[in-house]
Amino acid sequence: MMNNKPVKGDSSKNTEALVYDVLIVGGGLVGTTLACLLAESDFKVGLVEAHPVPGMPALDDTPRFDPRVSALTLASKNLLSNIGVWEKIASLRIGPFKRMFVWDAEGTGAIEFNARELGQSVLGNIVENSISVACLFDRLKSFETVDIISPARVNQLSRFEQGLRCLTLEDGTELKTRLVVGADGAQSNIRALAGIEFSEFDYRQKAIVTSVRTSESNQATAWQRFLTTGPLAFLPLPTIAGCDQYSSIVWSSDSERADALMALDDENFKHELERAFECKLGTIEWVDRRFSFPLRSRHAETYFQEGLVLIGDAAHTIHPLAGQGVNLGLLDAAVLAEELLRARSRHVDIASPAVLGRYQRRRLADNTMMMKIMTGFKRLFGERALPIRLLRNTGISLVNKLGPLKNHIAAQAVGLGDDLPELAKTDFSRTA
Ligand SMILES: Cc1cc2nc3c(=O)[nH]c(=O)nc-3n(C[C@H](O)[C@H](O)[C@H](O)COP(=O)(O)OP(=O)(O)OC[C@H]3O[C@@H](n4cnc5c(N)ncnc54)[C@H](O)[C@@H]3O)c2cc1C
């Protein structure tokens, strides 16, 4: 078990359990970001993570990429910058994109977004998840007020009694806290232990992820083609040894088609991929190992109970087609941190339904809307009926010509909306 400080709460040896203000379960991007936000404000924080804490990756000129990447919005970048992590991530490896190009496989409808039109230098950044998480843990280790408890899994969760929740780890260690935060991903154990129900929509699709090198430059562009069997994205990976031809692939397809694609050898897979992408970036010269994930959206019926709250994928899991999952989770973390700080400054209990209810109110509408949009997109582009296809193509081309509407949609998608938490709105490290 790795800790910033030794854990004193091993109940087999010590009857006194450690007491935290906030105990976060799950050290993914969302949980570690919340831990940084709270640690900066002197909350006593525990972070329980099932896997060993990752070390900083040793990067060289070998084109080996993490198959899990995130398209981080400008809001997410601001947030990571404000907690002192972005600079490190950017110094290691990022794939900035200046342009997004989205088109319909069944017709001529296409839409293009440009950073210049929004007065920005980039629209977002493609970041390998393993790099972001390693940088976040590296930052966390610098805080005296954080205990990293890893590798460790939570086994039991008590009710809220005498103002505390008690968590028991698999090795019997007991940890006590005012507030448990479930940041343990789509299959959240904390959500299950708390008995929080969730609604589920099975897309009957799988996402295939891998990295490729194309014969042409990725053009610092995020490409997305909507096929009736699901969307295919080419996201620009960092330039390695002067080569800007690497892209990360997220190819969502109906499950049977995805299984068939996974079963192909590399040569045939490259061929199918070129066809599906209309050779927009030339031929596929190299393809890395492929992984596939079933796609389901899930939404918790409530984000909180007394002394317990859910954030990130534990609260909501969405289709990856617009690359918004992590970005929504990071906004959850920022809003929750804002509400906890506000409560503390007013001497209000951070575990109370009033405080956690405010967090839920501020995040629920945003998350629900994004989930509905993703499901709507999936249905709209899965439609084979000719009138719908015609309307769809005309609609896309029309929006592309309407500058203000197009820019409004783009601004929301890249994280330039008005109703953001303060730390996501502005990069204070630049304005200082
Ligand atoms: C194919 C695919 C592509 C995607 N692309 C994008 C994209 O481009 N942009 C984007 O924004 N989103 C994307 N997403 C979604 C994104 O990956 C998730 O939204 C994001 O990883 C959620 O972060 P999280 O920290 O909430 O959960 P996770 O990343 O799942 O982290 C949860 C953590 O909790 C730990 N844990 C789990 N159970 C326990 C336990 N019992 N005890 C202790 N620890 C535990 C896990 O080890 C893990 O570290 C994609 C998703 C998929 C499937």
Question: What brief labels describe this structure?
Answer:
about 425 residues, 9-stranded mixed sheet, about 35% helix, FAD/NAD(P)-binding domain, about 25% strand, alpha+beta, binds flavin-adenine dinucleotide, 13 helices, 8-stranded mixed sheet
Please characterize this protein's 3D structure:
With 432 residues, the chain is of the alpha+beta class. The protein has one domain: FAD/NAD(P)-binding domain, CATH 3.50.50.60. Helix content is 35%, strand content 27%. Helix 1 packs parallel to helix 8. Flavin-adenine dinucleotide (FAD) binds next to helix 1, strand 3, strand 12 and helix 8.
Amount of helix: 25-40%
Mean pLDDT across all residues, rounded? 89
Tell me which CATH architecture applies here. Answer: 3-Layer(bba) Sandwich
Number of helices: 13
Ligands: flavin-adenine dinucleotide
The description of the largest β-sheet is: 9 strands, mixed
CATH class: Alpha Beta
CATH superfamily: FAD/NAD(P)-binding domain
Class from secondary-structure proportions:
alpha+beta
- C-alpha geometry: globular
Report the end-to-end length measured between terminal Cα atoms: 38 Å
CATH topology: FAD/NAD(P)-binding domain
Number of domains: 1
Strand content: 25-35%
How large, in whole angstroms, is the Cα Rg? 22 Å
Q: List low-confidence stretches.
A: 4-15
Annotation, overall tally of beta strands: 20
